[in-house]
Specification:
It comes from Haptolina brevifila. With 335 residues, the protein is α/β, with parallel strands linked by helices. The protein is 33% helix and 16% strand. The protein is built from 14 helices and 13 strands.
Length: 335
């Protein structure tokens, strides 16, 4: 059977869970013509130190290795490529250029996958400038099926139903420029605005969602909030939208916004407080979560994302990639 090995740093297990689960679901939706459905495993730690571990040693020609994130990203690209292993770097941060081009003097993977069009467009421009040819694919974190029990409110949550509705930020709100934006919203909304950044396991997240998150409007602010630089959608949207959250988002790049049209409410920072008040003034504003989750699933299920990015071509071809390409969301294919 074909093997797929996913790898990321040890301390990012929860942060990268939306991407990891999307990749697992996506690869398991594929069928190799002779090797069947891939066997997907994942591990954590430094790839340099892990190069001799069994997971790496077992990879053979036609297998796939994916490294997630900037930390410990000095993976054994060349060693694996010499064995015929397809290598992929999944870029997880806002980027102005690209990882792995010849200009940085480092070994590079066969492909770069990313969660945002703004990143991919910057990467493609950089690669063209330096004459590098790496395949690029748009594969954002997608719909992850929640456990059914996590969607059932507790007695305590029901008792809190009469509380004043809240606008919640899932993450640390005072990171870099985001802190200034959050404080500005606090000045307008007071105790109606809140944040949580201590959740580090899926179980804790499910408890938080069941008791608090499901009865709130959610806020999406960028790391460089309030700056003219276009910022990508964050990973935190995946678990929220998978549960049908209603999300007010700071604007993203036009191409990224098009992907989330109808799923997020994009609002300039200065209008977020008024938009929140308008939402909670609507009768039944907290309802419709199931329909929102289904709409997200229809467009962002792992199988749909892999099909749009034409990942099946990666596992069906024995030839190395011919050059970089950027998937066109309108055409639903790489070109």
């Amino acid at each position: 059977k074909m093997r797929v090995l996913l790898w990321h740093s040890r301390h990012d297990a929860f942060i990268f869970a939306p991407v990891r689960e999307t990749l697992i679901g996506g690869f398991e939706s594929l069928v190799h013509p002779t090797r069947g459905v891939p066997t997907v495993t994942w591990g954590v730690g430094s790839p340099i130190h892990a190069a001799s571990r069994r997971q790496f040693a077992n990879l053979r020609r036609g297998d796939i290795f994916v490294h997630l994130g900037p930390y410990d990203s000095n993976a054994p690209w060349w060693t694996l490529r010499k064995r015929g292993v397809r290598t992929i770097f999944y870029q997880t941060e806002p980027a102005k250029n690209c990882f792995g081009s010849p200009s940085d003097g480092n070994p590079e993977p066969d492909e770069i996958w990313d969660f945002a069009w703004s990143n991919l467009e910057a990467c493609a421009a950089h690669l063209e400038q330096v004459g590098d040819y790496i395949t690029l694919r748009y594969v954002p974190p997608g719909f992850i099926q929640p456990e059914p029990a996590a969607l059932v409110p507790t007695v305590q949550a029901e008792k809190q139903h009469a509380e004043t509705p809240r606008l919640l930020f899932f993450g640390y709100p005072f990171y870099k420029a985001r802190g200034n934006c959050y404080r500005a919203l606090q000045a307008s909304l007071g105790s109606q605005l809140n944040a949580t950044w201590t959740i580090s396991t899926i179980g804790a997240f499910e408890d938080w969602w069941r008791d608090i998150g499901r009865r709130s409007v959610h806020l999406h602010l960028h790391k460089l909030c309030g700056t003219p630089q276009e910022q990508p959608p964050a990973f935190r949207l995946s678990p929220l939208l998978s549960r049908g959250a209603r999300v007010l988002s700071e604007p993203c790049s036009p191409r990224d916004e098009a992907e989330y049209e109808g799923l997020l409410t994009f609002t300039p920072l200065a209008q977020i407080a008024d938009s929140f008040r308008r939402i909670i003034s609507e009768e039944g504003w907290a309802q419709g979560g199931h329909q929102r989750a289904l709409a997200y699933k229809a467009r962002f299920s792992p199988a749909v994302l892999f099909s749009s990015a034409r990942v099946h071509e990666l596992i069906q071809s024995n030839r190395p990639p011919a050059g970089w390409a950027v998937a066109d969301p309108a055409a639903g294919r790489c070109q």
